[in-house]
Design goal:
Elements lengths: L9 H9 L7 E5 L12 E2 L14 E4 L13 E9 L13 E5 L11 E4 L4 E5 L2 E6 L21 E3 L7 H9 L4 E5 L3 E7 L3 E2 L10 E2 L2 H12 L2 E8 L3 H12 L4 E5 L10 H8 L2 E4 L4 E2 L5 E5 L2 E6 L3 H19 L8 E7 L10 E11 L2 E6 L9 H4 L3 E5 L11 E6 L11
Parallel strand pairs: 4-5, 11-14, 11-15, 12-13, 15-19, 17-21, 20-22
Antiparallel strand pairs: 1-10, 2-9, 3-5, 3-6, 4-8, 7-8, 16-18, 18-19, 20-24, 21-22, 21-23, 23-24
The structure holds ligand LQZAQKY5, molybdate ion (MOO) and magnesium ion (MG).
Length: 421
Amino acid sequence: MVERRTPISVSDAVIKVMSKKQAGEAEWVPIDQCDRRFLAKDIVATHDVPHFNRSPYDGFALRSIDTAGASRENPLEFEVIEELGAGMVPTRPVNPFQAVRIMTGTQMPVECDAVIMLELTQDIEKDGRKYIRFKRSLKKGENVSFQGEDASEGEVLVKKGTAINPGIKAVLATFGYDKVPVAKKPIIGLFATGSELLDVSDPIEPGKIRNSNSYMISSQINRAGAEVVYFGKLVDELEVSYEAIENALKKVDILITTGGVSVGDFDLLPDIYQRLGAEVFFNKVGMRPGSVTTIAALQNKLLFGLSGNPSACYVGFELFVRPIIRTMLFSEKPHLQKVQAALGADFKKPNPFTRFVRTKLSFEDGQLVVVPSGMDKSNITTSLAGSDSLTILPGGTRGFEEGDTVDALLLDDQEGSSWPW
Ligand SMILES: Nc1nc2c(c(=O)[nH]1)N[C@H]1C(S)=C(S)[C@@H](COP(=O)(O)OP(=O)(O)OC[C@H]3O[C@@H](n4cnc5c(N)ncnc54)[C@H](O)[C@@H]3O)O[C@H]1N2
Ligand code: MOO
Ligand SMILES: [Mg+2]
């Protein structure tokens, strides 16, 4: 008699997996190596930015009070007492009706509270001295970038758990973070199981297929922010597979296998979990693809038995492994971000299980639209290539029609969600 499995809901399955979530650890890396890493601490402004009042224009710094009454009919003349480029500091006090020629980014003389742009002035020379003439008055603070206008000391600028992007890197550099506190990358072990698997460089042969899952999952591990240790392919033999998995477990934080979790004669993972003494949380989830996803824990280590079918494998990773990784990377929103979209094509096939349809997002007249990115079967690989989202079609008897409002999970987004279920 073939074992009958009882499916649990996707949300219950995610809750079970997340009951084993662990916090991550921090490490410091040089700023040049922090792209796409995740912050292990809040980034706080270590000083005001700018830390001095400065000119946002090339022009002349002066005292606004001296410009009162200036007009087309009543132009004013100011003596230019020095010239300052960015990086220089004023050396002379600025007295009434004096000005300093100042370049963009230069520290303002303390006596000055306004800048007139170069284009609005006319140079003149009298008795060997330089003057400017202009025809308008300036308000106090006009054309000045004030100390702290960008950030003030002590302000939290970027939260722990955020993925470092080019803008965050600029902030890190601004505040002198030559070393950046980032989450250590969790180490994820990976096996692809199946006696039918060929290497990517092998020619195809009867009955055999190239292993694509380990490449796909490695890529998903990297996208999620963790590091992969690929242990290779396993043929469907119990002893060999058991030993390899038992050994690998000692070297990693989390172990993923692909294939061998269903009820076939060569689906060995259920036996292996039993021999390891691992606690199996579930071996059937009310979802398609990925219904056979099996997740177990041995002490504190999670074992993810993802399906061998490529689309099922892909979806299983995104729903169950990603939030565990992102939690270890200090994210408070470890799950895929959920958005609402209009379905761009009929999807009539009814199913008792929740479907995660590989879809492509686009905007049509400002409305987010999702259309399937290929054939919707769990053994299909090509629909993954064009997919940037998983559209959730809840289980039930009715199919879905073009124009229906649906939820979609974003695959390439860094923001995430705290709980999309
Ligand atoms: N009698 C039943 N049969 C099946 C059931 C079931 O409930 N009762 N479930 C089906 C579902 S749903 C799925 S999904 C698959 C899951 O199979 P496994 O996870 O056990 O995976 P395998 O049997 O090892 O392989 C399935 C399929 O995927 C191909 N594969 C495996 N590894 C790779 C790889 N690394 N790269 C590319 N493709 C891979 C493999 O050749 C098979 O075609 O079971 C159904 N059967
Ligand atoms: O596990 Mo299967 O992917 O539901 O088709
Ligand atoms: Mg199988």
